[in-house]
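Supplementary Methods, section 5.1.

A reviewer requested that the exact input to the structure prediction be made available. We therefore reproduce it here, unchanged from the version used in the analyses.
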Amino acid sequence: QVALYESGGGLVQAGDSLTLSCAISGSSFLEYGMGWFRQAPGKEREFLAGLTWNGGSPTYAAGVGGRFTLSIDNAKNTVFLRMNSLKPGDTAVYYCARNRELRRRSVAREVGAYAYWGQGTQVTVSS
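The structure derived from this sequence is encoded token-by-token as follows.
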């Protein structure tokens, strides 16, 4: 059974940094690829960053490039999202997800391309 577990969220001040972690069991990010998303109250879930299978170079959404960095620990089957210079507008529940398609060659930005999701971790940035 596939399961994803996010951790690392919390309450921070504007300008601070956080690193989110996402561990997967019962499957592999390297075989499928993955994505990070967030959802703020009253808004749709939005793509932030993702990896193709085999841990290729990350792809980022236009709004977070330069502040967010995605990395992977292959041995631990865990991915990380380092978030710098956080803003109140970054307040949301953050999710990681595994692709639906085995060995997908491109990073998917649409929610429907992902088959498994974590429970989410809350990030709150105060001004």
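The longest strand covers residues 18-25. These observations are discussed further in the main text.
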